[in-house]
Design a protein that fits this description.
412 residues; alpha/beta; 2 domains; seven-stranded mixed β-sheet; four-stranded mixed β-sheet; 14 helices; KOBITO1-like
Length: 412
C-alpha cells in the first residue's frame, strides 16, 4: 500500500519535468529558426545569391548597357574589356535617367505565340529615336523589325547596335539593292510611276513602297502573320485591347479580315524645347474618324487655325495587313492584294500616334535632306503637303539671309 502511494506521488513530478523539457526545446527552436533564416538571407545577399533587385537593375550606372548584347559588336567599338557594355560614346547625347528601354531586349516571348507581328520602316534617324521606338513596340507585342536604313541609321556606330538586337533585320540602301528593286513588280506599275524621278518627298514615297514590297517577302520567310509600315516618329496605340497588347488586338480580328486601319492622331506640341518626344509630348489632335460630326465640324476652325487641312501632315492613318499570297503595298499608308479587294476594318479606339514636327531639327533636317531652292516653284516640286512647302520656303529664305549676314560681317 505504501509503495502504491509512492508511485502516485512520483507520476505528477515526472510529468512536470517532461512538460518543462518540451517547453525549453520549443523555445530554443523558435529562437534558433529565425536567427538561421536571417543568417541565410544575409549570406545570399553577401554572395549575390542571384537575387534580381529592380533598383540596382535599373540604376543609372547600368542604364547604358544593352541587355542580351554582352558579346555583341559593341565590345569592339574601341572600348576596353572592362567597358565593353558601356555605350556612353554612342548615347552621349541621351539622358541615362530616362532611358530604361536600353535594357532587357530579350523578351520572354515563346516562338509559338500568335499572331507574330512585324514592323517595317525606312529611316535615317539615330539611336536616340530608333531605340525607344523599337522598345515600345516590342513591349506591346511586335517581334520582328525590318529596318531599311540610310544616313545616320546606316553609320557603323548605329547599325552595329541595331544588328545586335534580337528580332531586327537591317537592310542597307546599296547599289545592289537599288538594282534589285528596279526589277521589282511595282516599279513597272502605273500607280507608282507618277512619283518617279522627283526629289525629296516623292523619292521617299517610292523608296518606302519598294522597301515595303521587299519586307513582305522577308515577313513570309520569317513566318510573320501581320505586317505594319510605320515611321520612327509614330507609335501604335492599341487602345481597347486587353493588357494594352497589339498582339491581343490583332488576335481578336476575325479571320476573314485582311487589313486593319489605325486612324492617326497628330501631336500638338506645347513647348519649343522638346528633347524626347515620346515621353514629353502628351497632347494629340484626334482623327476625325474618332470624333462625332458635331465635335469635328463645330471645332473645325479652332482646330485648323487657317490650315486648309485638318492635320499638318497626313490624315488617312496607317494599316496592318495579314501576310498572305499576292499581298503588295499601296503607298506608305495602305496595303493591297493583286487577286482581290482586301476586306478591311477600321478600329474605333486604337490609333497611330504621330509625333509631328516636335523639334525644330525635324524641320531643318527635312530641308537639308531635300536641298530645294528657296522658291515656291521648287518646293512644290519637292514636297507633297502644303504645310511642308510653306515651312520650307520660310526656312530656306531665312537660312539664305543668315548666310549672307555672316558673310557680310565676316568680310567687314
Amino acid at each position: 500500500m505504501a509503495g502504491l502511494h509512492a508511485s502516485l506521488r512520483t507520476q505528477p513530478a515526472s510529468s512536470a519535468v517532461n512538460h518543462q523539457s518540451f517547453a525549453t526545446k520549443l523555445l530554443l527552436l523558435l529562437t534558433v529558426l529565425p536567427l538561421s533564416l536571417a543568417l541565410f538571407a544575409f549570406f545570399l545577399q553577401w554572395r549575390g545569391g542571384g537575387i534580381d533587385d529592380p533598383i540596382s537593375r535599373w540604376s543609372p550606372d547600368e542604364s547604358h548597357k544593352f541587355p542580351g548584347m554582352d558579346s555583341s559588336p559593341l565590345s569592339t567599338l574601341g572600348h576596353s574589356s572592362s567597358q565593353s557594355s558601356d555605350c556612353s560614346a554612342l548615347l552621349r547625347h541621351y539622358n541615362a535617367a530616362t532611358s530604361p528601354y536600353f535594357r532587357d531586349w530579350k523578351f520572354k516571348f515563346n516562338s509559338d505565340l500568335k499572331p507574330k507581328i512585324s514592323i517595317t520602316t525606312s529611316t535615317s534617324a539615330g539611336l536616340e529615336q530608333i531605340l525607344p521606338w523599337m522598345f515600345y513596340h516590342k513591349v506591346i507585342g511586335v517581334s520582328t523589325f525590318f529596318l531599311f536604313v540610310e544616313g545616320k541609321a546606316a553609320s557603323p556606330e548605329v547599325s552595329r547596335v541595331l544588328e545586335s538586337i534580337p528580332g531586327v533585320k537591317v537592310i542597307y540602301r546599296t547599289k545592289e539593292l537599288e538594282k534589285q528593286q528596279a526589277k521589282s513588280r511595282i516599279w513597272n506599275e502605273t500607280w507608282l510611276s507618277s512619283f518617279f524621278y522627283k526629289p525629296c518627298n516623292y523619292e521617299l514615297f517610292v523608296k518606302q513602297s519598294l522597301n515595303m514590297e521587299m519586307a513582305i517577302v522577308m515577313a513570309r520567310d520569317a513566318g510573320v502573320d501581320w505586317i505594319l509600315h510605320l515611321d520612327t516618329d509614330e507609335l501604335i496605340h492599341p487602345a481597347g485591347a486587353r493588357d494594352y497588347s497589339l498582339r491581343q488586338l490583332l488576335l481578336d480580328v476575325p479571320g476573314n479580315v485582311d487589313m486593319v486601319i489605325f486612324p492617326n492622331y497628330e501631336s500638338s506640341v506645347e513647348r519649343d524645347d522638346i528633347k524626347e518626344p515620346f515621353t514629353e509630348v502628351s497632347m494629340f489632335k484626334k482623327n476625325y474618324d474618332h470624333l462625332t460630326k458635331d465635335t469635328y465640324f463645330g471645332m473645325y476652325k479652332e482646330s485648323t487655325r487657317g490650315n486648309p487641312n485638318y492635320f499638318l501632315t497626313y490624315g488617312n492613318g496607317k494599316s496592318a495587313a495579314r501576310v498572305q499570297d499576292h499581298l503588295r503595298p499601296n503607298g506608305a499608308h495602305r496595303w493591297h492584294n493583286y487577286m482581290k479587294t482586301p476586306n478591311e476594318i477600321k478600329l474605333e479606339e486604337a490609333a497611330v500616334l504621330h509625333y509631328t514636327y516636335t523639334k525644330f531639327s525635324d524641320l531643318t533636317s527635312r530641308r537639308d535632306r531635300c536641298g530645294c531652292k528657296p522658291t515656291k516653284e521648287d518646293v512644290k516640286r519637292c514636297f507633297m503637303l502644303e504645310f511642308d512647302r510653306a515651312v520650307s520656303v520660310v526656312h530656306l529664305h531665312y537660312s539664305h539671309i543668315v548666310i549672307c549676314l555672316i558673310k557680310f560681317y565676316g568680310q567687314a
